[in-house]
């Protein structure tokens, strides 16, 4: 059976929750998977596909997500990879383009550009001066769960399509 890795880089927990919903949808569609903090992922050889989600801070991916892509580039190129970023809060921006770094990382592993989801800022969960300041100024939760679920359904379909090509290719 296909095994999927859903991994996330999250500082204040919001991206972790998005990864949890993605994992639930994939599981409900019959796929076997692990949902793991990217800092706790070892070898990825046993996974047939990888979903990586990261929070965006100051226009960049979390460092552990960048490190993951650098460390596993060869293995990631060899399997389907699905990326998402989570960031903005407040009203949805008109331009929901992924970060330049995210597009670059996607290209290095042969993945589509990251899907961009809204994020959350909660003063109660923020640690450190800058995070607390920003969270106090613009608290909010812009995560659209329907959007996340729809994306995850598409990921499940793509994983199955890939499996189909692998099975046919192996005959
Ligand atoms: C100091 C700081 C800088 C941020 N910079 C960005 C940014 O450049 N772009 C963006 O989309 N979101 C930015 N955000 C919003 C976070 O990405 C958002 O709160 C996200 O949901 C946090 O995810 P996490 O809870 O998984 O850490 C920033 C948040 C903080 C606290």
TrEMBL record:
<dbReference type="InterPro" id="IPR026816">
    <property type="entry name" value="Flavodoxin_dom"/>
</dbReference>
<dbReference type="InterPro" id="IPR029039">
    <property type="entry name" value="Flavoprotein-like_sf"/>
</dbReference>
<dbReference type="InterPro" id="IPR052200">
    <property type="entry name" value="Protoporphyrinogen_IX_DH"/>
</dbReference>
<dbReference type="GO" id="GO:0006783">
    <property type="term" value="P:heme biosynthetic process"/>
</dbReference>
<protein>
    <recommendedName>
        <fullName>Flavodoxin-like domain-containing protein</fullName>
    </recommendedName>
</protein>
<dbReference type="Pfam" id="PF12724">
    <property type="entry name" value="Flavodoxin_5"/>
</dbReference>
<dbReference type="GO" id="GO:0010181">
    <property type="term" value="F:FMN binding"/>
</dbReference>
<dbReference type="InterPro" id="IPR008254">
    <property type="entry name" value="Flavodoxin/NO_synth"/>
</dbReference>
<dbReference type="GO" id="GO:0070819">
    <property type="term" value="F:menaquinone-dependent protoporphyrinogen oxidase activity"/>
</dbReference>
<feature type="domain" description="Flavodoxin-like">
    <location>
        <begin position="4"/>
        <end position="156"/>
    </location>
</feature>
